Amino acid sequence: MTSNVRKLISFDWAIKKILRSKANFAVLEGFLSELLFDEITIKEILESESNKETEEDKLNRLDIKVKNSKDEIILIELQYNREFDYLQRILYAASKTLVEHIKKGDAYSKIVKVISISIVYFDLGKGDDYIYQGTTSFTGMHNHELLKLSASQIELYKTERVENIYPEYYLIKVKNFNDVAKDTLDQWVYFLKNEEVKEDFQAKGLAEAKEILDYLKCSEEEKENYERYKESLHYQASMYETNYTAAKLEGKIEGKIEGKIEGQLEGEKTKAIEVAKKMLQKKADVEYIVEMTGLDKETVLMLDKSA
Question: Is the pTM of this model over 0.85?
Fold first, then answer.
């Protein structure tokens, strides 16, 4: 049966080419509002160091840096290739953003709130959920009490909770999603995974996404560029799988060879020790035993004492 669901441009390509336009902010605003459970209004798109129009930029990593109406900075990144140090990298990106957006001489209270959102298409860490949130809080070591802000700090920071001062992290592990959309946030995750918006989806921004990201409305040149980009992603994924499998196989082979060699060496040493014991029983000279068995002198002397 033929599906009547319209083919849509993937979210990663949209971030790269379409969603940076102010006319299309509604799509990002809808996604962020559903994820953060808040009404998000985008003030501007900020320049990001990875927003380069180069050959190296066309694959794997895409991000966008947004400032909302509260002057908070939101980093959205899509990542396809496995990176074992990815968690440190998002920490670095958030920290770098903090430093970039405080003026020299400003008080630390002027540090901006940073929200880091990672949409990853590989197995990051060990966990079965598909959305993880990370915040910073302080808990008493003895009474386990959660540290709270004082009245003056609440006034200074314009927030009532300590964790709202620090960077906040969201990890969306797309592959873990089971394609059952139980709420409006799930509807967005479904779109991120399948590049489809179902007729009954009501999440904020998805109606606009369905209209703006309609593949059929793209020019022929845009379609060609998009298809080349998708082919490049498939190629990169295939190369990774090939290299990973080869490395794993090579490691197994090396492990078997090393194990066999170690076993042989251990067996030879056992035989040499048995020969040395018999020679010691016949009062053979220690130096002669060392020469004939290949054992070191210290080992032979220890065998002599234990005899």
Answer: no
| 107 secondary structure, DSSP code | -
Burial of 106 (0-12, 13-18, 19+ CB in 10 A): exposed
Rounded to a whole number of angstroms, the CA Rg of the chain reads 30
Nearest to 209 by CA among 181, 229, 187, 178: 187
What are the DSSP E strand ranges found in the chain?
42-46, 61-68, 73-79, 114-120, 131-134, 168-173
Burial of 118 (0-12, 13-18, 19+ CB in 10 A): buried
12, 78 contact by CB (below 8 A): yes
**Which residue's structure tokens are 């035989």?**
271
Distances in whole angstroms, Cα of residue 280 to Cα of each of 255, 270, 272, 293: 37, 15, 12, 12
Cα separation, 9 vs 208, in Å, equals 12
Domain range list for the chain: 11-218, 241-306
Residue-wise pLDDT tens digits, 250-287 = 665 666 556 655 666 676 778 788 888 888 887 788 88
The answer to whether 149 and 162 are in contact (CB under 8 A) is: yes
pLDDT value of position 254: 61
The dihedral of CA 180, 183, 186, 188: what is its sign?
Answer: positive
Ranked by mean pLDDT, the top range of 1-5, 92-96, 100-104 is 92-96
**CA dist., res. 64 & res. 73, Å (int):** 10
- What is the rounded end-to-end Cα distance, in angstroms, of the chain? 85
Distant-in-sequence, close-in-space partners of 185: CB < 8 Å, separation ≥ 6: 34, 35, 131, 203
